[in-house]
Amino acid sequence: MGPDPHSAAAAWQHAHPLTMVLISTVISLIVVSLIVLIRWGVSYKAWGFHPEGAGGFLKDECVRWGAILLPYLALSIGFKFFIYDLHPEWNRPEVWAGFVVVAIVGRRLLARHPFIKAMGRHIDLAKQQAKGAAK
């Protein structure tokens, strides 16, 4: 039998906590950027109906998703640093499940913020106008 792969991974994570935080942060930023760009790209018909055009549509998508996901990202960085560097013994599925619940609730609460809802209304109105014009 060889060494336990889970133990080896946990040891590496504990030995390189900032690397773990950096890797997961970069992956999160890439995923969010792809989500925003895909949502923007598939809505190209609505760009002309947005008050500020394609650039305004992209800005609203960035603000809407950024305002929701950047606090999550900050929470995530802090949590990962806490787990990987300060308390590696807490690196268990049930602790991560608790973090996921908090992150989802936080995201849902932020999505209700009036500023973020206003950005969504701009986007939704432009999409509705584009659908109406296509008919």
- What would the average pLDDT be, to the nearest integer? 84
Distance between the termini: 66 Å
> Which structural class do you get from the secondary structure elements?
mainly alpha
- Which ranges are low-confidence, i.e. pLDDT below 50, for 5 or more consecutive residues? none
How many strand units?
A: 0
The whole-angstrom Rg is 20 Å
Structure, described:
This protein has helices at 5-15, 17-42, 53-86, 93-111, 114-134. By secondary structure, it is mainly alpha-helical. It has one domain. The longest helix is centred in the middle third of the chain and has 34 residues, at 53-86. The protein is elongated.
Concise description?
This protein is 82% helix and 0% strand.
Task: Give the topology, please.
Blueprint: H1 5-15, H2 17-42, H3 53-86, H4 93-111, H5 114-134
Keywords: Membrane, Transmembrane, Transmembrane helix
Transmembrane segments: 20-42, 63-83, 95-111
Main attributes of the structure:
transmembrane, mainly alpha, 0% strand, membrane, 135 residues, transmembrane helix
